[in-house]
């Protein structure tokens, strides 16, 4: 004890390879670097790994100021949360880097990295902004996009929250291997390469969107963490249903009132801890200071019903009587809700709605059953509830109103907004799964799609029809399902062929670029004439001249996959060689996924073996590659047999501490829909109890439940679905 307030303690902790607390990143020759033997050491303290780095009270509510010093070799740089100062000891082959003390903060936000990475940087309003990555990635300009948008986004948050970014720097680093997608360490944010780097020439719109979305979310959380508010109701909600709930809240409070309440909350509790009611209190104060805002209950009373009980409601509007009811929405109607709710699964529901295309005053449903006479209509009038999908609930109607809505879609679909067209489809399919409406009614919402040119309704339909594909692509129903999809997608395929001048131009609209991908992908899978040859011709041209890829980045994922599916060994081997030599992370990711699209069993089995060889497939990508193979109808049984036979090894190597390991079980079993497959799952569980399942334990139980539900759904719906597709595909 040197002073009354200082303890000196010797502590040693070995750096682990591919563990949660540290990563040693060994990147092999030709895969992501041309240099051999790069080693990067990076910390990952969340959730409770700071205690393995140094003695501490490793609890988020207990905060401290951290002064970090790192001793490292001269040919590397050291990074931590604060700005660094560097000193070199003469005659010793090391550097000592010290960092400015942090603000008072939690242990899980501390970070330190040693690497030979290089930055690009800028100084904006006395804030140092740096993007760190492999030298090749920086030299190729892959960090410029993140650098250019960091400053404006931070200024947006400062304006929106009415509070200043409290740190002296913002470092962001792209790691070739990183088990998490990103980690919002205070002042030193770590990412997978695919979540931060963007090549303006080689990356697609989708890559840019994923980087933007991932980066924007990470920066949002990072900004909040920079204020060091343990705002569990914000962060926990953000990562689950909360985005929709918070959007609903801002809609009925109005955005200015919501922003003022949030700003007050953040400024009051900066560098402190909160309880969940604090946010509601500050939003309530903002409401009371806004004379034009009237809500039926306090913010706390309204929001407790959305945050303190499971799920969300389905609201049923009967336009014959004006009756409006709500009940807890359950996708599986046979499931038992064994968790009681203090609110009896009743919500205070803000309903924005329109009548025959005209917006009506907002209506609040405050009990299980009510009557709202303005919603009673007759003749050709129709009601559409939850306009702009501003509320977090599903909507059902009486049969007559469903018929009128479908008539509007079939005759003049643009009368209904794009997002509400998508909502009608999505609600109908989910209501059918819940046995609230018929499967046929849900399928009828897709009949108008031959006239639809917008992305969001098509995406809604395809995501819902994907369940039908998974359930039926191994039996006779798939033939008529495929014929129906071909009939519906062909006009969209021809539309994009026309507006791109026979595929020579990129659509100008952002969502049109996404919908072009849907049009080509579904057209090729459904056998639309001209699609297969288009794909094969692009890929052949690339194979002839590997240094000049004629495939537009937006279309690469789709074209690579279908070219390999339509091709043979030569196409697969070419893609494998391009994957091994890819220097852009997003390009390597596209190729790795596409290699799973082959229809040749022995190629897929060989690829499965590659997944467990870290010199071929990096450890962070192994389980997702197996999942990609399982998405392929040919690869699914191969992937299941592979994992079944090697579970002990896979679990030991990849299952302990992995955030995404549970996805392996759910991904491989998503097609399971027969009694034999159910028994296989149960046998797998019994035979591996001694090995364990780790984070996949819950996923395995859910897979058994979902397989049971799939068996029941197929039994009940197969004949009806087959008849409907046969009738509508002629």
Automatic annotation (TrEMBL):
Residue span(s) of domain Aminopeptidase N-like N-terminal: 39-109
Localization, UniProt: Membrane
Enzyme class: hydrolase
Residues annotated as domain Peptidase M1 membrane alanine aminopeptidase: 145-212, 237-306
GO-annotated cellular components: cytoplasm; extracellular space; plasma membrane
Keyword field: Aminopeptidase, Glycoprotein, Hydrolase, Membrane, Metal-binding, Metalloprotease, Protease, Signal-anchor, Transmembrane, Transmembrane helix, Zinc
Domain ERAP1-like C-terminal: 382-707
Pfam family, one: Peptidase_M1_N
Keyword Zinc: yes
EC number: 3.4.11.-
Cofactor note: Binds 1 zinc ion per subunit.
Similarity comment: Belongs to the peptidase M1 family.
Protein name: Aminopeptidase
Organism of provenance: Pundamilia nyererei
Organism classification: Eukaryota, Metazoa, Chordata, Craniata, Vertebrata
């Amino acid at each position: 004890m040197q002073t009354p307030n200082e303890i000196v303690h010797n502590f040693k902790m070995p750096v682990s390879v591919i563990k949660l607390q540290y990563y040693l990143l060994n990147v092999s020759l030709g895969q992501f670097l041309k240099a051999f033997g790069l080693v990067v050491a990076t910390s990952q303290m969340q959730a409770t790994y700071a205690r393995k780095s140094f003695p501490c009270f490793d609890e988020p509510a207990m905060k401290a100021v951290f002064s970090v010093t790192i001793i490292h070799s001269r040919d590397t740089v050291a990074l931590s949360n604060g700005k660094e100062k560097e000193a070199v000891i003469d005659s010793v082959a090391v550097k000592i880097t010290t960092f400015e003390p942090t603000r008072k903060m939690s242990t899980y936000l501390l970070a330190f990295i040693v690497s030979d990475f290089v930055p690009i940087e800028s100084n904006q309003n006395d804030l140092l902004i740096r993007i760190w990555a492999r030298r090749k990635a920086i030299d190729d300009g892959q960090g410029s996009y993140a650098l250019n948008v960091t400053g404006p986004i931070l200024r947006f948050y400062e304006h929106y929250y009415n509070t200043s970014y409290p740190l002296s720097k913002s470092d962001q680093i792209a790691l070739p291997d990183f088990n998490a997608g990103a980690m919002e360490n205070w002042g030193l944010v770590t990412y997978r390469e695919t979540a931060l780097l963007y090549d303006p020439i080689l990356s697609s719109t989708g890559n840019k969107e994923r980087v933007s979305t991932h980066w924007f979310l990470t920066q949002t959380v990072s900004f909040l963490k920079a204020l060091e508010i343990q705002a569990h109701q914000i962060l926990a909600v953000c990562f689950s249903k909360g985005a929709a709930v918070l959007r609903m809240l801002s809609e009925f409070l109005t955005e200015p009132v919501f922003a003022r309440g949030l700003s007050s909350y953040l400024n009051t509790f900066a560098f402190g801890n909160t309880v969940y009611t604090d946010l509601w209190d500050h939003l309530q104060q903002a409401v009371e200071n806004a004379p034009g805002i009237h809500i039926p209950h306090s913010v706390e009373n309204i929001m407790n019903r959305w945050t303190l009980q499971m799920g969300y409601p389905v609201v049923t509007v009967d336009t014959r009587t004006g009756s409006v009811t709500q009940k807890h929405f359950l996708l599986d109607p046979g499931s038992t809700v064994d968790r009681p709710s203090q609110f009896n699964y009743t919500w205070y529901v803000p309903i924005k709605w329109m009548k025959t295309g005209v917006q009506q005053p907002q209506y609040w449903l405050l009990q299980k059953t009510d009557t709202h006479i303005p919603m009673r209509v007759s003749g050709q009038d129709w009601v559409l509830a939850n306009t702009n999908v501003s509320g977090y609930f599903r909507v059902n109607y009486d049969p007559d109103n469903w018929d009128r809505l479908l008539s509007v879609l079939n005759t003049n679909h643009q009368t209904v907004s794009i997002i509400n067209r998508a909502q009608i489809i999505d609600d109908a399919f989910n209501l059918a799964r819940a046995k609230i409406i018929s499967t046929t009614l849900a399928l009828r919402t897709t009949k108008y799609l031959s006239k639809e040119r917008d992305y969001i309704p098509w995406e809604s339909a395809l995501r819902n029809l994907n369940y039908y594909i998974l359930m039926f692509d191994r039996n006779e129903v798939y033939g008529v399902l495929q014929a129906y999809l071909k009939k519906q997608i062909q006009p969209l395929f021809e539309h994009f062929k026309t507006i791109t001048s026979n595929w020579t131009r990129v659509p100008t609209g952002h969502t049109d670029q996404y919908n072009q991908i849907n049009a080509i992908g579904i057209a090729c899978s459904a056998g639309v004439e001209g699609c297969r040859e288009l794909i094969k011709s692009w890929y052949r041209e690339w194979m002839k001249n590997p240094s000049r890829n004629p495939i537009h980045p937006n279309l690469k994922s789709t074209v690579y996959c279908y070219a390999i599916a339509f091709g043979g060994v030569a196409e697969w081997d070419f893609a494998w060689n391009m994957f091994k030599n890819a220097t852009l992370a997003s390009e390597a990711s596209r190729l790795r996924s596409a290699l799973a699209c082959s229809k040749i069993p022995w190629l897929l089995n060989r690829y499965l073996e590659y997944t467990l060889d870290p010199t071929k497939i990096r450890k962070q990508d192994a389980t997702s590659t197996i999942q990609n193979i399982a998405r392929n109808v040919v690869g699914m049984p191969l992937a299941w047999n592979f994992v079944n036979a090697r579970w002990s090894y896979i679990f030991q190597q990849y299952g302990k501490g992995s955030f995404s390991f549970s996805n392996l079980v759910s991904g491989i079993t998503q097609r399971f829909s027969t009694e034999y497959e159910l028994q296989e799952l149960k046998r797998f569980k019994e035979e591996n109890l001694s090995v364990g399942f780790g984070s996949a334990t819950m996923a395995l139980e859910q897979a058994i439940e979902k397989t049971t539900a799939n068996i029941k759904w197929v039994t009940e719906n197969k004949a009806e679905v087959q008849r409907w597709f046969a009738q509508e595909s002629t």
